[in-house]
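Researcher: Let's run the pair from yesterday's discussion. Sequence first, then tokens, for each.
Model: Starting with the first of the pair.
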Amino acid sequence: MFTLYEDALNWIHSRLKHGIKPGVIRMEWMMERLGHPERFIRAIHVAGTNGKGSTVSYIRSILQEGGYEVGTFTSPYIEQFNERISVNGVPISNEDMMSLASTIKPLVDELEQTDLGSPTEFEVITAMSLYYFGKVNRTDFVLYEVGLGGRFDSTNVIHPLLSIITTIGLDHIAILGDTIEKITFEKAGIIKSGVPVITGVHQKEAIKVIETQAKQKRSTVYLLNRDFKNEALVSSKEGETFSYESDRNSFINLFITMKGSHQVLNASLAVKAIEYMRTYLSVHIEEKHIRNGLEQMYWIGRFEKISDQPLVVIDGAHNPEGINELIKTVRSHLKDYSITVIFSALEDKKLDDMVAPLFEISDRVIFTSFDFPRAMSAEKLYSMFPRENGAAYEDFRIAIDAQLPRLGEKEALLITGSLYFISEVRHYLKQKVVKLNN
């Protein structure tokens, strides 16, 4: 049906007009028509407010070190759309993407004529991934990252081997609810009957909700700081060194190049997941695979240094919890630098809790915008947070162009906000920094 990759991609993106539609009924309809590919996938399901992508990547990297072939379904993408469906960290080909779109489109056309209505972009790409991993390319394991929430997320048609809930924070409150309890209930919707859940949540109310849901599903809960523990040992410019301990294993001096205490948490969740798989799923992973997998994992767009001179760092801190972790990482790794921040966000975020901390760690905050339906304008951001050391540029390219030449030896440019924003800005930054250095 699709003979050009651009046509397939444009069709997928055209589904954005249908917005967000919580619920799995359309997914179930498509799965039935496709012969239930989700039933042929050995999946690990990962939900949470922050840390999903990093946790998925740590698990993938460790399994790869052990010789396993691992599929991943993640969102959003940073460099190219195809990376949302990847095998061993390599995005599927344009040809595979065209073939998958051609398979799903007739079903979408048929579904639109029913009372169930039109599927969204995320439902379409989720269905494509399930068909790919269930029918086209069967890998040893597939790691599925929840898109939004959990209970009504498109990915929740799978019955995984293991579930993970990373952290809980107040994000997407218009859809998931305005309390920790309500949001946790939605995230805990991924817990399946008899399937254990690993979690790094720390709030008492969140833990209570998860344990209640798990008890109803006869699911075992493995809780960080109760059933397994980590301890940060050394934070350096190269990364983080930490220890991991449970009733089964003790690993000292584990090292990750990803920076921040939140990455230690994500890595610890991944180690616990691997530990469970070794114990109960006969997955052959040795300690060397764990150590090498953690050290070799690299996740772009997360406190990523784009350039040394000038020093430019990008980070997809897209909610208050992400900003708080970013602030801690900046204070640990950029404490000797004068910092200029460029920030952009979507309209549905809790901006009060995101912007104020940025002024605390920087000399200047520049608001900007980008081409995305829910992106807030720079002027609106600036009008909400007027400061003498603030500024606004609608075009993020102009904002970057204005700041890069001004950076001195002990000055850093920190660009943060929406992951969709980081995706756009990263490509531009790479080109810009190369020109400055030549």
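Model: Moving on to the second of the pair.
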Amino acid sequence: MTDRTLTVTARPHPVGPHLLTVAGELDHHTGPRLRAALDEIPFGSGAGLVIDLSGLTYCDSTGITLLVSAYQRAQNTNSPLSLAGLSPDLLRVFRIVGLDQVFTLEPSVEHAMSSLRP
């Protein structure tokens, strides 16, 4: 970890899933940015959420905990949630801890968006 920057960009969608793009390093220093963005997402609206992680360069246990919390919130409100664009390293971590069995993982944002569109 050299540069503790994280950008989180939300794009609401009127008829499809919301898109949250996360780029940079996700750790206990930058995690509040993701938490704040997730708090703004209207889970339960039926639209669903795609979290684009293709720009994520680092993710520690804090980041994984935030993603699991988003999953739990989506489950509690019957909202679909997909993670897209995981790097091979992050995908390996998800597989090791069994999160590939919990999350819907898509290779790209396009795949995730099309799978959640009504």
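Researcher: Give me one sentence on the second I can quote.
Model: The chain is about 35% helix and 30% strand.
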